[in-house]
Amino acid sequence: MIKSNRSAKRNGFSLIEVVVTMTIIAVLVSFATPSMSRAMEQSHADLVGAGLRSISVAQRFYWLDNRTYAPNLQTLIDADLLDGNITVTAARYEFSIAAADDTTFQAQARRRSFDDEGNSVYTGAWQGTFTVDQTGVIGGVVQGPESPISNATPQISPSF
């Protein structure tokens, strides 16, 4: 007589159960990823805003001593008014002084993107420029890729 194992208790999961579970997880992750990306980009924008604020303050001190604004960042660094590591704190942005004379200046932080080899390029998912002038007002916007869910283009600006 041959015994049937139909009544034996099964352990483990079937392939269909695993596929359904993975599909649910994939859907949940696809909804969370855009908001996570936006939150990370906002934190980078806030760091850039702080860097531009530092440049603005350094320019004011430089102007008090020289009655003109510094033509480049290296001049502010050499005068010990600006930390030379400003580019390290916000590696995704390139800081520069776009224009400076006796009465005005404009500094900018341009969003970098990176290619597959890690080289800096300016054609990527997030693009844009933040600026600050002699009044200390920070402006500009960085735009991200269009969302496949809402078809909207996210925009980031420093939040202070």
Automatic annotation (TrEMBL):
The keyword DNA damage does not apply. Pfam families: N_methyl. One of its GO terms (cellular component) is type II protein secretion system complex. Keywords: Membrane, Methylation, Transmembrane, Transmembrane helix. The chain crosses the membrane at residues 12-32. One of its GO terms (biological process) is protein secretion by the type II secretion system. The keyword Cell cycle does not apply. This is Type II secretion system protein G. It comes from Rubripirellula amarantea.
